[in-house]
Amino acid sequence: MTSSNSNFDIPPRLNSQDFQLDPYPVLRWLRHENPVYIDPESGVYWITRYQDVVDCFNKPQIFSSRIMHDSHSVVFGPSLTAMDGEEHTMKRNIVAPEFVGKRLEAFLPVIEQNAHDLIEKFTENAASNLIKNFSSNREVDLVDAFTARLPVAVIVEMLDLPRTDLPFFEECYSTLIRGLAPLPQLREAGIQINLRFHDYLDPIVRERYSAPKEDLISKLCMAEVDGERLEIEEIKAFTSLLLVAGGETTDKAIANLWWLLLNHPDQFDAVQKNYDLIDHAFTEMMRHSDPVGGEPREVHQSVEMHNVIIPEGAIVHLSMRSGNHDEVIFSDPDEFNIFRNDLYFGKEMRVGFHDGNKASHLGFGLGKHFCVGYQMARAEAVIGTRLLLETLKNIRIKSGKNPVMGTAEIMRSIPTLEVEYDRR
């Protein structure tokens, strides 16, 4: 296999550290030369062009998420991410109203439409409390002190769990996300911590079945679709998934947002002068540096793409990261630009959006498995960033401490972000 680019005359190693640090040259080569690429190390078919990724997401009957059972359901129990067909539709219809739509607006409405909803209050409270604890010597690691702690604190408030148990929740959160890795010892640790978390949740869920309150667990206990309710084990499994999906990915997204802004001072200056641009910056971050990067699917029907036959039973990797950097869709895609005119900056939609010269990012996936926590992630990133800007001034990366993107242990992010600041 050859290419006109001599850097890639041999097949790229898609699991290498070099690829994690800078995937974009390889992904560009794949889009141009091998849009359906069989990774020789894993046998996985990589789909890398924007429109192809969109098409695959929107054909769940062919590109099934059942493969997620091998990781998510083993650790979490029966999980929405691993369900298809009528089973997924019924369970998601019970759960999804807590995150999207208008049936249960108390939790996650579109944040611009309702400034007094609970997610805003919880994020305001959690972010304010974290910022109050910043060191008095006017320097802090934003990852350790803020981005890694905010999502879990908000979720704990939404679930109405004791704040005094936050250290346990943070242990669960970090161990569960590592448990999704294929390493047996990490998988076993994830399973064991999930069992402990479920034992912890069991009396809480049972109590709220009989005496519901206004928290998310109670609403999940009471929600019905066609007379069906989620079972106790399913609620516990979903709560585990929420702790990770609403925690780790949001944590990394906020960290990536701040790293990008601090390394683009002109755009950071514009955001500080106009907080409405924080929302734009979050959207562009999800296009430019989304932490997840892609999702696996199992092929349930042989299909041909770009003269390559993908056989039934094959595993494909839908590269959202590559699609988000497709130069056919986005001009200068490797540049971070919150003012770009080819990106759709409105509310994310599970079916995607591509109108004329504007296209939506793919960072939350698409279709039936579009991330149910997308509004929560956006709200936490935007509100948390605004509160930091309102409380701190002259925020800058500490001299000699600018981290390298892609060196975080989990997902593509930064492990630390040491900054200096002045109090307002």
Q: What can you see in these coordinates?
A:
The chain has a single domain (73-293, 329-423), classed as Cytochrome P450 (Cytochrome p450), CATH 1.10.630. Strand 6 (303-305) and strand 7 form a beta hairpin. It is globular. The strands form 4 sheets. Strands 1-2-8-5-3 form a 5-stranded mixed β-sheet. The chain has helices at residues 17-21, 24-33, 50-57, 72-76, 85-95, 118-132, 142-147, 150-159, 166-178, 184-210, 216-222, 232-245, 248-262, 265-273, 277-288, 320-323, 374-391, and strands at 36-38, 45-47, 63-64, 139-141, 294-299, 303-305, 308-310, 315-319, 354-355, 358-359, 392-397, 418-423. The protein contains 17 helices and 12 strands. Helix 13 packs across helix 17. It has 424 residues and is of the alpha+beta class. The relative contact order is 0.16. Residues 1-6, 71-83 and 86-117 have low confidence and may be disordered.
